[in-house]
Amino acid sequence: MLALFSLLLISPYFPNPGLAQPRPNTPPPDFPPRVYEIARELRCPACQGESTAESNAGVAVEMRRIIAEQLAQGKTEAEIRQFFVDRYGYWVLYEPPFRGYTLLVWLSPLIGMALVGFGLWRYQAAARARARTGVAGVSDEEIARLESELNLNPEQRKP
Fold first, then answer.
1. I need a labelling partner for 150 at 20 to 30 A (CA). Which of 11, 39, 87, 132 fits?
2. Closest by Cα among 141, 57, 39, 138 to 93
3. N- to C-terminal Cα distance for the chain?
């Protein structure tokens, strides 16, 4: 019983090869690292927010295989990216080009900030104009009456 208890106490200090996991973002031995460099620039069609290099979905594994085949055929990175753009559209690229609808996506934060800034500027200008003209529409008699009411003690004011 003591030997079993001792074994349980020291077992966490000995590695178990059956529980070993591969380190993340390290390419498996069957694909060269260049495949994963290209795959990091492509979005996985089945996963949300994962690149083809990070995903273990079937379509991502197939995309990595296609990248490896095309590299073996001597195609350039641009040709490989264009192959996937033709197949899936510009959505598959993590950094789409600056043209067409994607230009609107790239510029929309700047346009939004400009509109908010313009709106704040107009609001401040209107508030300043109201502050300058606020007393102009009130007669001298009304101002005198208000000043006299403000100078009265609280007991003397009418309810």
1. 132
2. 39
3. 91
